[in-house]
Structure formats: C-alpha cells, structure tokens
Amino acid sequence: MPTILTPKERMAIPRQTMPEQAPEVRRANFNEVPLGYSDEQAAREAQRCLQCKTPHCVEGCPVNVRIPEFIAKVAEGDGAAALEIIMATNSLPAICGRVCPQESQCEIKCVLAKKGDAVAIGRLERFVADHVRSQLLRGETAPLPATQPRADAPKVALIGSGPSGLACAADLLLAGYNVTMFEALHEPGGVLVYGIPEFRLPKDIVKAEINALLQRGLELMTNAVIGRLFTIDELLQHEGYAAVFVGTGAGTPKFLNIPGENLNGVYSSNEFLTRVNLMKAYLPGSETPVFRGKRVAVFGAGNTAMDSARTALRIGAQEVHIMYRRSRAEMPARAEEIHHAEQEGVQMQFLVNPLEFLGDERGWLKAVRGERMQLGEPDASGRRRPVAIPDSQYETAIDCAIIAIGTESNPLIRQTTTDLPVNKWGYIVTDETGRTTKPGVFAGGDIVTGAATVIEAMGAGKRAAAAIIQHIRALNPAVGGTPSSPEP
C-alpha cells in the first residue's frame, strides 16, 4: 500500500531527471537519447501529482487523457491499470510520451508549473507504455486478444497512416467497423517513420503500436496512392465504403527559392530524413544513397531542423550549423530538442538569411552567400519580423544544405477530387468535427491545419471518427457504433 503524502510533502519532491546517453556517445549512434525512468523514478515522480479536483492538465491535452487517474496508478505500481486509463483516449501512448510537446500542452497547465517544475506527464506516459510492453515481451502480461469486425459491418477507408489516421482507425475499430487504411509508402506510420529520427522515436515502437491495430482487425494496404489506385469517388461509389477519412498530412517540402537550390548537395529536410529514417541510409551496406556532407548548414529552426542537424552529425558531418533568420527567442523547436542539439555540437547562427547557393564547376555545392538581419516590428505570426542589415552580405563554405522551413499539402487528392473544398493554401476545409461539405468525406491532421503536433493530429482523427460514426448511423440507424470518447 503506497504511503499517502500531504500536498506539502508532494510539492517538496523534486522533478525526477530522466537518464540520457552522454552527448559525446550519442552523437555517434542512432540509439534513443533519453533512456526512460526506472520503476522507482516513475513512482517518485507520480507522487508529485497533487490530484487536483479540477485537473487543468486534462484540458491541455488534445485527446483529454485522464492524467491524474493514470498517474495515481503509476504511484501505486499498477502499470497495466495506468495504460488502460491512457488507452481509453490515446491509442499511441508510447509515441506521444516521446514526441508530444507536453511542456506547451498538458504540463503548462499543471498547478506545480506556477511556482516550479510541472509533473513530468509525458515521461510518465512513456514509462507506462514501455513498462507494459516490456512485460509483454517477457511474457509477464497477456497480450490483448485479437479481434475482427463482423463481415457485414460498415466499411470505412482511411487515406494515410500517420497519427490522425491511426487515431481515427483505433476508434472506428473499437466501434466495430471494417477499416481499410491506404498508405502511399511501403511502410505505415507517416511522419512517425519517415520524418522523426530513430534516436527520438525508435521505429520498433511505431511498429508495435500499428501491430496492435492490425490485431484488432485493421486492414492495411501499402504502396497504395489514392488519386492513382482509386479516387475518393471510386472508394465511395464503387468500392463499398460508407465514408472516407483523409489524413495525408502535409509532406510536400517548401524551398527557399533562391539561386543554386538545384545544386548537388542541397536537400529538402523531407528527402534527407526520409532517406535516413525510412530507407535506413545510415546503415552500413544500405542501398539507399545519401550524401554525407562534412560542413552542413540547416536552414530553419523548428523540430525538423533540429532532427536534420542531429542526423547529419550522426552520419559523419564534422560541422553542422543551424542558420535562422530570427533570434533564439523566436525558435519554434522544443527547448529540449534545441538543448540536445547544442549538447551534441550543433552550432547556432542567428539573424542570418540565405541569398544564394554557390557551386563548383562540377555542380556541387561549395558555399552559401547570405546577409545579416535585425529584428523589426512583429509580423502576422506575432514574432518580430527580420529586416536585412545594409551591406552585410557574407559567404560561408558548406558542402551540404538542408532546407527545413516547413511543408505544404500534396496536391494529388484535390486534383482528383475537384469538389473537395480547400483553402488558398491547398488544405482541406472541414468543420470542427472533421466533416467536409462533400458527403461521406472527412479529414483531419496536417492536411487540414498545416504542420502541427502528433497529439493534435490524433485529436483530429478521434473527432473525425466520432463524426463518421454519427454519419453512418444517420444513413442506417440499425448499424450502431459508439464513439470511444464524447462526441464533439
């Protein structure tokens, strides 16, 4: 029986530090950087939770995980019960515990954050998922029984196997529907497998989460490009699907649009990370080529830029520079990712703007010409606008450039579904539930919002699942199906 602590005693417990690989070790490997809590550390961290009567942390979670409840179970040493509570609203806890920005979502709402360190909610979520998974691997816990929907249950097609699609699939399977997921690439997972490096999110974790859905009856079709294999109209009108959810993400890279961007050695972050992450170009003997620059510049300062810079180090770069046209205060990357990058030797260059890439006589990148900036008045994003300093141009020798300034929507779906409404940026227009004005078609995640977080995409997938169930029940009330979370 755990000791009952007073609020004062709980507040006196320091936030538990998670062990990590040393920077000089990890920059030479692709193993996960944080090593996870021990049982003792997790229980101690869980004791810090004040079990607030009005848990604002839950409000900060896009999928409303019952945070105090699962943390209480961690404090009691009951990992299985904790996981059951999390899984009621979050089907990907091992992933979310690793890559979600808890510091700006649930943890920022924690009462303890007002005067000190918030409860480490994300680290505890990761602990729970990993703890139960390790028990499964050791045979100490029975796996969930495999289930299959009834053959006559309604069919729903999901386009894309990223976070929004996986969350949508989980709730539709729970409701008893037949769910087919179409993935354009050869492996499922979307940005989880092609965009996030192994050292931040091990791919066996993603595979385990997807395998759990396959055991529950998910049908998966890879190498299936919707817009080519089938159009959305063909899925609805000829293939027997009662509804379609579009969760294709925003995977088309943006470029700087400056001279020299077509030189050898210039990558988009999408291509660079896909080659290394999904196609394992970092492994000895890999058939996927990737240029291993010695002096690398990454343009951008978000999480993808940090992932690209840290990956470049691990495949052999001698120097890696983040080049950002604003200051440190405006960097959109998570503070933890910036900290890890700097620990590993990534160098930050602020208030610089690229003007041209310069190449040699063989067409290979040899330098970048840029100009120095200063911050002016805030722009539409609320951040101070960078303004060029006159006569401040300079050149820096580099042999590899990685452009990590954002992404946009792939046009294939909208080109082959002309009555699907999109906004001026090409993102699909929906209501708050994910419903489009095209009957039977729903959408969520980055294809609706533009680039956002994994947990926000999952929240959109869950809302869409509830709306799809409502839609199908309206068409045929005898079908039934109950959303696993409150309807929006």
Report on this model:
With 488 residues, this protein is an alpha/beta fold. The chain is built from 18 helices and 15 strands. Helix 15 (335-343) links the parallel strand 8 and strand 9. The longest helix is centred in the last third of the chain and has 22 residues, at 454-475. It is globular, with a radius of gyration of 23 Å.
Q: Can you identify the CATH class of the largest domain? A: Alpha Beta
Mean pLDDT: 91
Report the CATH superfamily of the largest domain: FAD/NAD(P)-binding domain
Span between N and C termini? Answer: 39 Å
Radius of gyration: 23 Å
User: Which structural class should the secondary elements be placed in?
Assistant: alpha/beta
Q: At the third CATH level, what is the topology name of the largest domain?
A: FAD/NAD(P)-binding domain
Into how many domains do the coordinates divide?
3
Major sheet description: 5 strands, parallel
Could you estimate the helical fraction of the residues in percent?
25-40%
The helix count comes to: 18
Query: How many strand elements?
Result: 15
Strand order of the largest sheet: 3-2-1-4-15
Strand fraction equals 15-25%
Q: Mind telling me which CATH architecture of the largest domain this is?
A: 3-Layer(bba) Sandwich
Shape: globular
Low-confidence segments, given as residue ranges, are 483-488
Jot down its keywords.
488 residues; alpha/beta; Fumarate Reductase Iron-sulfur Protein, Chain B, domain 2; FAD/NAD(P)-binding domain; 3 domains; five-stranded parallel sheet; 18 helices
